[in-house]
Write a structure and sequence with these properties.
heterodimer, A: Rubrerythrin, domain 2, two-stranded antiparallel ribbon, 5 strands, about 30% strand, B: Rossmann fold, 9 helices
């Protein structure tokens, strides 16, 4: 299990890919999966001005 | 066949592409653009391991920079840097469309506050002011009167970056509460959707509802010409239905999102995208 960097809740990254965005079920923080082998998530980067299609 | 998919985030679209590659038996690697470090004068041999690199970066500036470097090194990329740079910039898009004789909303460009207001009053109220870069319907302004024009232009001049001091001004097209997004892959319009909203901004990122739009010969002809005008590839063309002017092309997306377009159209968009890349790679091998 990874831990939410915002509220320390346990977060499962099972079946996910590095780079996927998930939400913490406890505090609803937007999290980015950074490692699935050694489960780790980080706060997802804020949307930047050049993001898009 | 071995592909690299360049990403900033793994969105639903990238997961659908991964599933399509797995079904097709294509080897692939997901490359996070944030992890990259280029020594520009020295080709990094890792890139030679790929038959092509498909740019799916959500960051338009990162994606474009990577495309430039890889093309410089002779690595096949989709879409090309030239196509991407045109589509990422509304000014360049409009100029390319005008060059090709494709109908677009009347568009004016100004750099000075007073000239910008003059431009808005020339196209008439309501007018639309947009950033020349950006996406998902962000920072679009519908300007209904002189007071709003003065306020919006002053805000852009005062609060915006230098890019927001380029005032891209368009006539407001009275569309029927929807626009059309058409997906062009190579020389075919593979499908299209209506994006319907009560709001004048009809991006799905802003809550518009999607439904199937039949690809008529007129729409297909227009959209394939649009794709050619910007260099071709895998593109999403946004089209406005003007009561008087017919179909007007609004913008073109080079790294389009498609998660909401598969169900209404019944078209496997990620598979179509992959087949296009595979066929191009094979053609290159045979040359």
């Amino acid at each position: 299990m990874a831990h939410c960097p915002e509220c320390d809740a346990e977060v499962s990254v099972q079946g996910l890919l590095v780079g996927e965005i998930i939400y913490c079920s406890d505090c609803n923080a937007e999290l980015e999966v950074v490692n699935v082998e050694k489960p780790e998530v980080a706060l997802a980067p804020q949307v930047e001005e050049d993001w898009g299609e | 066949m071995r592909l690299a998919i360049l990403t900033s985030r793994v969105r639903v679209e990238e997961k659908l592409l991964i599933e399509a590659m797995q079904r097709r038996g294509i080897e692939f690697e997901i490359i996070d653009d944030g992890e990259l470090l280029f020594d520009l004068a020295q080709l990094d041999e890792r890139w030679r391991a790929y038959d092509a690199v498909f740019c799916r970066s959500v960051s338009q500036s990162r994606g474009l920079a990577v495309l430039h470097v890889l093309e410089h090194w002779g690595i096949p990329v989709f879409n090309s840097a030239a196509t991407t740079i045109t589509c990422n910039d509304k000014l360049l898009t409009t100029l390319a469309l005008l060059q090709a004789g494709i109908p677009v909303p009347r568009t004016m460009l100004a750099f000075d506050e007073q000239r910008a207001i003059e431009g808005i009053e020339t196209v008439g109220y309501p007018a639309v002011v947009k950033p020349i870069t950006g996406s998902w319907g962000r920072l679009l302004s519908r300007i209904n009167d002189r007071d709003a024009a003065e306020a919006v232009i002053e805000h852009r001049e005062t609060l915006g970056s230098y890019q927001h001091h380029i005032h891209y001004i368009q006539e407001y097209v009275a569309k029927p509460r929807r626009d059309i997004r058409a997906f062009v892959v190579g020389d075919r319009t593979i499908c299209a959707i209506y994006r319907t909203s009560e709001h004048w901004v009809t991006n799905t990122a802003r809550g518009a509802v999607t439904s199937n739009c039949p690809v008529t010969p007129d729409l297909d002809g227009l959209c394939t010409r649009v794709a050619q005008a910007v260099g071709g590839g895998i593109l999403a063309v946004d089209v406005l239905e003007d009561e008087e002017g017919g179909l007007l092309v609004n913008e073109i997306n080079a790294t389009m999102e498609f998660r909401n377009s598969i169900a209404p159209t019944g078209v496997n968009i990620p598979q179509e995208m992959l087949e296009y890349i595979v066929s191009h790679v094979r053609e290159e091998v045979l040359r």
